[in-house]
């Protein structure tokens, strides 16, 4: 079992200045020649097949995987996780906690957006103010709602003041919700809103960041093409362009990988690993994740407003059978909401164990001795496979499920609005910290699109999660998160099923591909071998 890969308290203060600048601006002629040779050596067009169209290319609007996979290549954050999962400077040269509630951020100079405008303190403040603006209504606001104010101190320095001491702030700033867009984009979006347009539409149509790729063109529902940012402030991308194609069908994605129409496909169903690995020229890359796959229940809908019903559902699901059937045993069975890769994971939790006889008794005690009918919502082959196994198992205790398949965008809208009884969902703890793994999914203020799609409302959990946010002591935070997780397990708004292993299909000539535990691909270092 992997341990958390960095000390949480080590994130409180770090000051690293000019590393990327040194790498990108060598003093010697030899260094210049080496950089030039690298640029001449690589190139080509990378094709990546995704399962659905991104919901938005505005980082303050979308938190679904497919949107983030594309946006990560176009935008930068103030700080970032490196491949060893350590915080490192990005658009910020440094971030330092100078008081309990005050952070000083020094912003990198000589960084230009794709539209030629300059990165400075005013731009960073405008971004943080925008994501927190209630008139905008960002579903990512929860990431930064502990921020009380952002003050510009000079052209390249800001102070971020939080409402309470919050040592996880660097991790939150590293989340894609902290992607920095150009001031021109922000101003254009507000102008569009004043003219009656919806928030985020302007940025979605013309996304402008500072990333190693920049937006080129899009055909909605078909593809998004990005091209290399030749003026990137850091290490430049190796390939000339990347095209994200929308290919919903698993078998079609696999066929395109096999026929060299695609270089990378994601996701891959575990039952297809053998086929891809057996094919000459292709293989499946497996990466540990920080994600949870779960069965969600709308706790505001009858009969799921009754905890006994929810516990009965959880007790009737044999996770071992589900894991074997859906992931071919590749995934890790989940006892609670957090994966072992996440700070806050606890081995001391008491799960609801599989016991169909006890599940029947719980239903009887809840007044459903004859069972009931419900609909479970899914959005792809994997979630449908899981739902079919759950359908079979729940029928044993009298619960008859109808499985409804929806396109991902419609699925996200329906679950955000609470227009569903049950659903198969997933959540990736992007920051690798329990605050992000629990606060969005289970705090009552985040019901809906922010993450709490089970519409769970529990005062004790709210209080524990709020207290953990305000606690600096690492051991105390762990205790609070363990207590909160046990209540969540007992109240059963979800059935935590498994922590997936990330499966990406690659051609053999693809090198340098890396996937974070959050599932986001890192494409800067990818090369195409002739």
Q: pLDDT under 50 segments (min length 5)?
A: 1-36
Given the structure, what is the number of helices? 17
Distance, first to last CA? 38 Å
Task: Find the count of extended strands (DSSP E, 2+ residues).
Answer: 24
Quick recap of the structure?
The protein is α+β, with helices and mostly antiparallel strands and 530 residues long. It is 32% helix and 23% strand.
Write the layout of secondary structure elements.
Elements: E1 13-15, H1 19-24, H2 29-41, E2 45-50, H3 65-74, E3 79-81, E4 87-89, E5 92-99, E6 102-107, H4 121-132, E7 147-154, E8 157-162, H5 169-173, H6 183-194, H7 201-205, E9 213-219, E10 223-228, E11 241-246, H8 250-258, E12 264-266, H9 273-278, E13 282-288, E14 291-297, H10 307-316, H11 319-327, E15 332-333, H12 356-365, E16 372-378, H13 381-395, E17 399-405, H14 408-417, E18 422-428, H15 434-442, H16 459-469, H17 474-491, E19 494-499, E20 501-507, E21 510-511, E22 514-515, E23 521-522, E24 527-528
Parallel strand pairs: 2-11, 2-12, 16-17, 16-18
Antiparallel strand pairs: 1-5, 3-4, 5-6, 6-8, 7-8, 9-10, 10-11, 12-20, 13-20, 14-18, 14-19, 15-19, 21-24, 22-23
Helix pairs in contact: 10-12, 11-13, 15-16, 16-17
